[in-house]
Design brief:
It contains 20 helices and 4 strands. It has about 425 residues and is mainly α.
Length: about 425
């Protein structure tokens, strides 16, 4: 009887889903311990501990204003107007018709709205960003499992995206800038996972989640073509049958437009153009070709240096594929796919088929290229930061691109990939202790 129970238990543990669950749970425990270590090392005298409320958390401020029945952070007709202006002078607020508004898309304020009923204005904003980081880790791991990667390879890819990229530093802070990006990455990763899931309701959810991600970081809209292609493919390109998938993102987009119009009399304006930086200080506005050279110098040419004083780097941005080495992994995966397909075509004397994965990888590659180009056109590169935080918005797409380039790539080059990932983890560990927002 005991042997039968033992054999049954061993058989239970040998099930792939059980092993995957155990690996994921243990990994999350270790990841939480790692985050706790970093939070502790960063110190607690500046509001940087895990459960602290971040001084730059404008989303909780917005949530509290919603609860009062107003949208503006400071209304022009308030009695103590100048006192309020001085009080929030350190925040990035858009100024329109003497009203001060949150200058970022609104979605990250929604979770803070609900949390404010528990914590009031003292929400644990650092913890919220941390949870978005954990969520991103989980969804990338599960996405890799969807592509039938082994558990260790799936963990490596999840670490590339989170602790091995500049996203790590963002998930340590509940500041308005970092929280928005952390949530956007979590939602984007979740959307990618859902669109490759089997249940049809997940495909609907993927479109909704990516629409929410756009409400955190507008350039995430660039990844809709991939989702649309995958959904079309699942329906054998009978496009008229897919119109219902566009309902939820259309409703979300309509809500954004109405909210923007209420604030700025424009359905497309969410506030950045009314920041003093772009409204009065930069002649070329928010986007211009004139910014490309300086941005290339900062985000491509600028490299961290090892000196006698340790690692030296610009705290206003440096080479994006060094701070987030998953870009290197994705580039290697693309080259590997091209070389492998070319070799196969030459050996068999026939053209290779453009299957779903190859087309998906091509769409991702084009979307990332457009995304990077748009970032290079931007008049600001995110100010105080570690690495290149605007480029972090491409990181989940890079992970999916690696997967679409073929399961065999990460399995075959697991050791070099792990070494590259370790480099990324160590570099971003150093950055997390020196750049605190």
């Amino acid at each position: 009887m005991n042997n039968m129970k033992k054999n049954s238990f061993v058989a239970f543990l040998n099930k792939e889903k059980v092993r995957t669950a155990i690996v994921l749970i243990l990994s999350l425990i270790l990841l939480i311990a790692y985050y706790d270590h970093v939070f502790t090392k960063r110190g607690g005298d500046n509001g940087s501990l895990m459960f602290d409320h971040n001084t730059y958390d404008s989303y909780t401020l917005q949530a509290m204003k919603w609860r009062e029945g107003q949208i503006a952070i400071i209304e022009s007709d308030v009695e103590n107007y100048q006192e309020e202006v001085n009080k929030y002078a350190y925040l990035e607020l858009a100024i329109y018709e003497d009203n001060y508004y949150l200058s970022f898309p609104p979605v990250p304020a929604i979770p803070m709205f609900f949390l404010s009923f528990i914590f009031g204005s003292n929400t644990p904003s650092n913890f919220v960003s941390f949870m978005y980081g954990l969520g991103t880790f989980v969804f990338i791991f599960l996405l890799a499992k969807r592509f039938n990667l082994k558990n260790d390879s799936s963990l490596i890819l999840a670490m590339f995206v989170t602790v091995g990229s500049s996203l790590f530093n963002l998930t340590l802070s509940g500041s308005v800038w970092f929280m928005a990006q952390s949530l956007a990455m979590c939602l984007t990763a979740a959307a990618f996972y859902c669109v490759f899931s089997k249940p049809k309701w997940c495909w609907y959810l993927s479109m909704f989640l990516l629409a929410l991600a756009v409400g955190c970081r507008p350039f995430q809209v660039l990844y809709f073509p991939l989702l649309i292609y995958i959904i079309f493919k699942k329906h054998n390109f009978k496009i008229l049958r897919t119109w219902t998938y566009f309902i939820s993102p259309a409703v979300v987009a309509f809500c954004y437009m109405v909210y923007n119009y209420i604030r700025f009399d424009s359905i497309f304006e969410f506030g950045h153009n009314y920041l003093p930086e772009f409204a009065t200080q930069k002649e070329d506005g928010q986007f211009a070709l004139s910014y490309i050279k300086s941005n290339v110098d900062a985000l491509i040419k600028e490299m961290p240096k090892v000196t006698s004083n340790g690692l030296e780097y610009s705290k206003f941005g440096f080479c994006f594929y060094i701070s987030s080495v998953i870009f290197i992994l994705f580039a290697a995966a693309v080259v590997y796919r091209l070389v492998q397909d070319s070799y196969t075509a030459i050996r068999t004397n026939r053209k290779f088929d453009m299957d779903c994965d190859r087309i998906g990888a091509s769409i991702i590659l084009v979307a990332i290229a457009i995304h990077i180009f748009l970032v290079l056109l931007h008049g600001s590169q995110g100010a105080y930061q570690f690495g290149a935080r605007y480029m972090v918005d491409c990181v989940p797409a890079c992970a999916l691109g690696v997967l679409l380039c073929g399961r065999s790539f990460l399995e075959r080059f697991k050791i070099p990939a792990a070494m590259l990932c370790i480099f990324g983890i160590l570099l971003n560990y150093i950055g997390s202790l020196s750049v605190i927002v």
